[in-house]
Design brief:
This protein has 196 residues and is mainly α. It has one domain (2-195). It is 92% helix and 0% strand. The chain is rod-shaped.
Length: 196
Amino acid sequence: MGESDEKEKEAEEQAAVARKLTEQLEQLVVETGEMIEKAWVLRREFFEKVIVLNGGTIALSVSLLSNLGARHSPQLIRLLATSWVLLITGMALGMSRNWFYQEERLASVHLYTEGMGRFLLDRIATALSELVRLRGYDEERLLELEVLKNPPDNTQAKRNQTRLRAALLWLERMCIVSTIGGYVFLVWFAIRNLVS
């Protein structure tokens, strides 16, 4: 009777430790998720502002050009047209980036939850196998629990997420480069217009 009580007490202690670890893990998951969400929102909002800024700049330059009413040389018109093309390209790339952002985010959430699921399954299987061992269950039950520890591989999902991230990074860079180029040509147009 004494050995059985010791095993029960040890199992209860392990269950208490497992509950505490689970609570800490849940808190960590929530905090990490909140930090990731804030970072995603800030990045998305930045590119939304770039899109609006580019559109506003085009509208302002068109209205300013029509209000001035002066005839400009073809060289100046080419500078202005190049600026508008680059700004419109920056807007399109920014919108594409925000669209791909949703896809990449879904892939990230999928992999994150799958990884957390694997981690939790491993923890649960380890705790259950220890309880099974302590209580003297058969080997067949232990083998069933080992299956929980080895879920299927997710290599293809990781590759897809890597491709999405690469596309997202390229879109971000090209959006910024195009926007900067558009403003450079617009300032060049303004300087040339003031000088002539």
